[in-house]
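Our preliminary data section would be incomplete without showing what the modeling component actually yields. Below, a chain of 238 amino acids is followed by its predicted structure, encoded as tokens that our downstream tools consume directly.
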Amino acid sequence: KRRPLIIGHRGSPAESPENTMASFRQSLDQGAEALELDVRLSSDGVPVVIHDERLARVTGKPGTVGRRTLKHLRTLDAGSWFDPAFQGERLPTLEEALEELCQRVPINVEMKFRRGDPAPLTRAVAAVIRRLGLERRILVSSFRHDALPIMQAETPGILTAPLYHAGMGAPGRDALDLLGQQPLREDEPGVGEFPWRGRLMCLHHSLVTPALARALAERQGGVGGGTVAPPGDMGRPP
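Predicted structure:
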């Protein structure tokens, strides 16, 4: 029977500090079948796992990710803000996170951009994925839709998905037609890979309608709905 795939969003952020290894491990222990993490670029070009551009919320320190070196970012405590029990949790690099976590489940890497050219972060993320040989265990997503063709060019065959929050509205015909032009995988997903052969959009659940689902199906695409609450809504059709 088909059912939703349960993805740990930033790990298990209700019970541990988001986007840390402690949170990812807890999410897997709770039964998550895949994980989502956010990534930004340090000033010296290293993809680091963190949601916000500003460091204050999860480290208590001033500044932004893009103006700090990896050496500096490694000194920051990313756990105490949540609970003293997590004191000493660090901001992992993307490479550190993928090396451990992809041994257990596939990963959705969401690329975060403040402004400007999306290519530096996109190419750095692609380089990590290629170096680790994880092209078929990764889904790359972003609200910066112009970053996704760069990722596909850098890492042919990788799954990518444009993200839509509620304020963006549902994708129009142009976006759907562009999705339909993306290449399809010809083989079935293997063990440890994301269970999609086709094209994918990830939308806020309020944007998912029967008409949109039909339009995606016509283009051999699928839809992932996010931010589903209460839990009883998870299996409800649009």
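The chain is about 25% helix and 20% strand. The radius of gyration is 18 Å. Preliminary results of this kind motivate Aim 1 of the renewal.
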